[in-house]
């Protein structure tokens, strides 16, 4: 049984929680590869997907996971809604809750938005990304994909490359990897690495080649232009020359590493097309695992609502 | 906590042999038949039956395992969430005769869930149910096994546990336990 009522961030979870989600996801992965990919577990549950920020993968993945579990699903995105007319977050959500919703999956641009909701309303909250804070289900699917490819996460060396400063994926991944016993390094230009990140117990490296030579897994993050208020590097071209992963660099390493990317990919910036489509990349496995792990998280959270 | 042995050792082996004989009688060369053991109690039993048929008739019957956790009707109605076990059905069940195997039938609710779960793998031509122990007079649903090892009269507060050599026990034993 999970130790938390909500899934707000990896920080609140225990290692046992993560392992329970993984073992449950193993069974859901088998379910989504059946001829009939649906189970009736959540047929009496209604889930609202509330997205105040753009999303393709996460939104589709959650919706598919919910439907595969037979839940009733309603979708809401802030564009075209009454949020534009000045309605507050709490009012919006309370109105949705009046329609008898059991679980809320929310993405919001403000860090802590999901904690705020969890403190003020009765439903189970699942954070699908809150600003630059956390994106727990992404970290769960990332670590699950590492476990699937390498057998275990324990003892593996994982480098997270790119825009660490603005990335909720990075923070959630650091927590999840550390809880599961992996070593974590972050790599990127000085301007995109938070100043005191070493206090989280991660290594910091500014030379991509050195980072890649150290690691077993490289998680290449996207540059989040939409969150950058000032210019953190001279040009995209210069960034990609220093921190972009290309086939030449990958092949020059004296070992095989696993390449990951949470999407959306900016091909030619953080990762070139030939790397994104090569054998070492597990980017599409991550997407498939996203559905299975989200089914597991939803199933385990719903099970706590008696 | 008083416990009574219902079936054990050689007697249990004879019962499994008899059940296997009955299957051979009804399914002939098993060309169109598969066995599916239900997690967790039915897995070892289904393997034993497969072995018996192999020894008696030299036929390899395809044998799978099915977990019913996601199809149970008591999800969110019980204290603890059940952890799912492995499902592995490496064959098609479309138009096949399926023999579902479980160790104990009690209320019949697990079997209802199993029928539901099984349908995700296709539409079998016929489904039969084999249970080692039938706890009579306790059914919640109109479900009856096609093959029964032993009928036991029991009350709600009692339960049955199985010990198998495969799990590291010295001998096979089925116990009726008073709580």
TrEMBL record, chain A:
<feature type="binding site">
    <location>
        <position position="57"/>
    </location>
    <ligand>
        <name>carbamoyl phosphate</name>
    </ligand>
</feature>
<feature type="binding site">
    <location>
        <position position="85"/>
    </location>
    <ligand>
        <name>L-aspartate</name>
    </ligand>
</feature>
<dbReference type="GO" id="GO:0016597">
    <property type="term" value="F:amino acid binding"/>
</dbReference>
<comment type="similarity">
    <text>Belongs to the aspartate/ornithine carbamoyltransferase superfamily. ATCase family.</text>
</comment>
<feature type="binding site">
    <location>
        <position position="264"/>
    </location>
    <ligand>
        <name>carbamoyl phosphate</name>
    </ligand>
</feature>
<keyword id="KW-0808">Transferase</keyword>
<comment type="pathway">
    <text>Pyrimidine metabolism; UMP biosynthesis via de novo pathway; (S)-dihydroorotate from bicarbonate: step 2/3.</text>
</comment>
<feature type="binding site">
    <location>
        <position position="263"/>
    </location>
    <ligand>
        <name>carbamoyl phosphate</name>
    </ligand>
</feature>
<dbReference type="GO" id="GO:0006520">
    <property type="term" value="P:amino acid metabolic process"/>
</dbReference>
<dbReference type="InterPro" id="IPR036901">
    <property type="entry name" value="Asp/Orn_carbamoylTrfase_sf"/>
</dbReference>
<feature type="binding site">
    <location>
        <position position="168"/>
    </location>
    <ligand>
        <name>L-aspartate</name>
    </ligand>
</feature>
<dbReference type="InterPro" id="IPR006131">
    <property type="entry name" value="Asp_carbamoyltransf_Asp/Orn-bd"/>
</dbReference>
<keyword id="KW-0665">Pyrimidine biosynthesis</keyword>
<dbReference type="GO" id="GO:0004070">
    <property type="term" value="F:aspartate carbamoyltransferase activity"/>
</dbReference>
<dbReference type="Pfam" id="PF02729">
    <property type="entry name" value="OTCace_N"/>
</dbReference>
<feature type="domain" description="Aspartate/ornithine carbamoyltransferase Asp/Orn-binding">
    <location>
        <begin position="154"/>
        <end position="301"/>
    </location>
</feature>
<dbReference type="InterPro" id="IPR006130">
    <property type="entry name" value="Asp/Orn_carbamoylTrfase"/>
</dbReference>
<dbReference type="InterPro" id="IPR002082">
    <property type="entry name" value="Asp_carbamoyltransf"/>
</dbReference>
<dbReference type="GO" id="GO:0044205">
    <property type="term" value="P:'de novo' UMP biosynthetic process"/>
</dbReference>
<protein>
    <recommendedName>
        <fullName>Aspartate carbamoyltransferase</fullName>
        <ecNumber>2.1.3.2</ecNumber>
    </recommendedName>
</protein>
<comment type="subunit">
    <text>Heterododecamer (2C3:3R2) of six catalytic PyrB chains organized as two trimers (C3), and six regulatory PyrI chains organized as three dimers (R2).</text>
</comment>
<dbReference type="Pfam" id="PF00185">
    <property type="entry name" value="OTCace"/>
</dbReference>
UniProtKB/TrEMBL annotation, chain B:
<protein>
    <submittedName>
        <fullName>PyrR protein</fullName>
    </submittedName>
</protein>
<dbReference type="InterPro" id="IPR000836">
    <property type="entry name" value="PRTase_dom"/>
</dbReference>
<dbReference type="InterPro" id="IPR050137">
    <property type="entry name" value="PyrR_bifunctional"/>
</dbReference>
<dbReference type="Pfam" id="PF00156">
    <property type="entry name" value="Pribosyltran"/>
</dbReference>
<feature type="domain" description="Phosphoribosyltransferase">
    <location>
        <begin position="6"/>
        <end position="158"/>
    </location>
</feature>
<dbReference type="InterPro" id="IPR029057">
    <property type="entry name" value="PRTase-like"/>
</dbReference>
